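Fold this complex.
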Amino acid sequence: MQHRWLPLALLCLSLPAADLRSTVESYVAARQGPIVAELAALLAIPNVAADRVNIRRNAEHLKGMLERRGLAAQILETAGNPLVWGERKTPGARRTVLFYIHYDGQPVDPSRWRQASPFQPLLRDGRMEDGAHEVDLAGRAKFDDNWRIYARSASDDKSPAVAFCTALDALAAAGRQPGINIRVILDGEEEAGSPSLTAAIERYRPKLEADVALILDGPLHPSGRPTLTFGARGSLALELTVYGPKFALHSGHYGNWAPNPALRLAQLLASMKDEHGRVLIEGFYDGVDPLKPEDRRILEAVPDDLPGLQKLFGIARPDAVGESLQEALQFPSLNIRGFRSGYTGGDARTIIPSEAIAAVDVRLVKETPSGPMLEKVLAHIRRQGYQIVDGEPDDAARLKHPKIVRLSRRDATEAYRTEMDLPQSVLVTEALRRIWGAEPVRLRTSGGTVPLSPFIRAMGFPAIGVPTVNFDNNQHSENENLRLGHFFRAIVTMAALLAME
Amino acid sequence: MQHRWLPLALLCLSLPAADLRSTVESYVAARQGPIVAELAALLAIPNVAADRVNIRRNAEHLKGMLERRGLAAQILETAGNPLVWGERKTPGARRTVLFYIHYDGQPVDPSRWRQASPFQPLLRDGRMEDGAHEVDLAGRAKFDDNWRIYARSASDDKSPAVAFCTALDALAAAGRQPGINIRVILDGEEEAGSPSLTAAIERYRPKLEADVALILDGPLHPSGRPTLTFGARGSLALELTVYGPKFALHSGHYGNWAPNPALRLAQLLASMKDEHGRVLIEGFYDGVDPLKPEDRRILEAVPDDLPGLQKLFGIARPDAVGESLQEALQFPSLNIRGFRSGYTGGDARTIIPSEAIAAVDVRLVKETPSGPMLEKVLAHIRRQGYQIVDGEPDDAARLKHPKIVRLSRRDATEAYRTEMDLPQSVLVTEALRRIWGAEPVRLRTSGGTVPLSPFIRAMGFPAIGVPTVNFDNNQHSENENLRLGHFFRAIVTMAALLAME
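Structure:
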């Protein structure tokens, strides 16, 4: 099938963006079979970060994929899983772009997947939740855009690697050179927080330097429009334990006398936010830049369907931190991820529990680094009369302090934000605008936290996220999937990025 | 051994209380072997309420025990486990006393017991927790007061049945008639809430009528002094579910926008009580009688070791509902038995949970019946802006009401209280005061809730609790035990009650 399109592709040398798009689209349309087969082969290698043997199989496989596209590729050893690095210089190119992708995937619970294995890719003719049927994958040459591949990492984050390689193939088939020097770094521990990547910077910095990093990860905006992400909130995860009696007491015999730690914790948590979701901790929002009119315009341009989201989520009235979801994401947030104390439901017992635990995450923005934020939270807790301790309080501490809270976890990842008016930002935005003939959705700050933040901050050059997969991909959950139409479009987007000059 | 004491016992006819005490004590001292053996034989019959076959074996066994003491005994069938009833009239007696005991026990998890089986009684020469050693039980004639029998229901509530029967033996051995008409009712479902007993009242009421019911159950006051309980708090158990988004959302992508149900629930619970544990729900304490000086004197006379309890429990500052534990128990209380939402600890995930659940119990006093109390709690919840629903809210409800709480459980047991100045109360108090030569601890309201409350309220005559076992008996838990000194003293107390006129 490839040969039929080659003559057409050869015409596309140096053609403008619209022609690059049709060139790549035609290439992809003609070679769907081998492209999807290459993806399926990669998905068939289990990639849970803790599975060292298979992780290395992934790394070797990816190194081979890069080499086949003319990249000088290496396995870079780290204290943890290996990185896969590749480089291809383009004669005359003025800029170097570092493409970041991760090849590890979230842990799996195979029993919850509706297929033999998360690592045996399954093709369905639509969304499983909509009653889609299984379609035979092996040997197939044509695929409908609405069909989906179900497998761990189909979306997060193996398909960008295949799309990237295929975009290089498409350019090559069109006889076209990339416009940039290419560097690629494939991370094998993203889902485990990328500890080895950041640690490896000092060792491998010269291999990683670039003018801009493009992070090929994550889903498109739900509108399905091409999307760029210029920042991500950080996260400060805390675990708080409030203490009651040393052991659970009978709520009849001691209720009204022995303090209840679940109530204490409820009061503490309630003191942190108002009725409308605004944080009451002193100084919590301090330093957050007021939005510039230009920022506000960009936020307003994000085509969020807020009434649709409210309906989907069953939310009658959103919290009132910002005037919109996008505005809300420009501010730090405080969230109770979970709490527990005593028993509920069938296990409920008439006790005053001995402790109550809450897991809290504070989402940070660029202006609110984790250190000062933690101090503000702790100062607030102290103002509620608490003694803050690091370990289980002993008898003396219990008898001395009426209110004790233990801070048993304080994991922080900082936020990052790349200004949208930097030359690199403008270049990438233009590349997408030109190839798709429309304004990309520009997210000033993605609400979530990316483990890559420390890497981005340590490298010191701008980073921009280029997500490509479908929003409803069940990322991090069972039955992860990739809509093939999104995958095919990703190849076009990658080609546009490679063609940047 | 018995014969040796008979001549002495015969001298005791109509002797004053001090002599009755020494008579019974001597009887018990001389016959410890067979008395403990009778207890051990009863404990060897498994008595979990759901074990119908063994429950009936218990009932038949107890019927035989009563018959051997000259009671006309019957098995009274109910919809559930049988009741064992007995009666023995005393010529010339002016009063009829109904003795209540239960013969079922809490469920057991044998793996958590430090003995072959909870139904193979084991003798130890002290408290297991203090390193006591096993002592051979079979064939033993003498026992130290500090020794303990470990077995399910050793304390709760089989030993009172044996003590009661032995007290009749001791009176008989002394040639002495009881001073009252005796009625006994043995409940086989107390640990399951006594559903069949209350339901059986209409069928068996004439057999149950009495001037006073004495409830032979529960532990002595921790001081170890003879104790009488004149009431118990009721309980209103509620389960509340507060709703957030229909499914858990990513706290990064939607934090600051999607309301968090754990925070909402924390705010709701926090609104119910102040910093000092006082309930803020409007009208919560309405109707509770101010304590009369006499009541206050009695409460003050309870020898609670509050500093000792604070130390034991690790409580720096008790809640401030009353000026003491006893005073606090005269008021209704509101307790969070448990709550949960999302995940904590190693399972914590960066989500906005979809719901948050709290199990709450309101302890009731006589003046605060459950119906109006529930209405007050619900009115408070509504004042916080909540729509209260009975089932899972549908999409329309979620989109209509910003704050929804589901009330999924509302189990109520009413409180009861027998006034301490009633003739029956005075009679029982006097009986204990005379036999022990000291003021009994009088608990105006026991903090806990007894399933017997509906029975007491339905029968309409006063009820008084006469607990006898050791406080540290591991009741309701594994390794339940009975201190034998308490058991031997229980026999004396029972004799005093039987001797009342």
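The first strand of chain B starts at residue 72 and ends at 76.
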